[in-house]
Structure of SGNH/GDSL hydrolase family protein:
Amino acid sequence: MQSWIKEGDVVLFQGDSITDAGRNRDKGDDLGKGYALMAAAQFSALYPEKQVQFVNRGISGNRVKDLQKRWQEDCLDLKPNVVSIYIGINDTWRRYDRNDPTSTEQFEEVYRDILKQSAKLEAKLVIIEPFVLPVPEDRKQWREDLDPKITVVRELAREFGARLVCLDGLFAQASARAAASFWAPDGVHPSPAGHALIAKAWLQAVGAVE
């Protein structure tokens, strides 16, 4: 399989807490402790000759509107060759914990704007869809809000020619092998095993592994 990421590329991981994964924001090269680190480490071990630079600018709690506000500084100014975006679960979560919803229409409008801005870079795009598992039980209610947003993410990936990482089905499938809490103890934030699932799916999406 031919890797889609080229020699000397700069790969930017963007998103919320799942991408942030406890990174030290005072250190620009810190990739956190989650899927971004795992994917970058595995890619670099497989393709050391490519000398690819990986950057993480995920920020915990972000929604699409937060990405939009900082897109110039935390994406365009970095001039990445590959932009990987993983956002959406907080756009659903805030409806249920703060009564501060993001409509599907708002979500789509802002996400599309982010992707249009990224097109100025002529960067390749990787879009990771959000997921939720039924841990605790009240997360089941979230599906009514999240499912339409997942559909938007999939449609935008097709519209913008992005590589799509389909996590919702992946985590549902994994939960048939081990309890949902094994993969994401709160239904949202992945365990180390959950992050490893995402990293593998990401590497497959960019053609780095089969």
Observations:
- Strands lie at 10-15, 53-56, 82-86, 124-128, 163-165.
- Residues 57 and 82 are 13 Å apart (CA to CA).
- The longest helix spans residues 143-159.
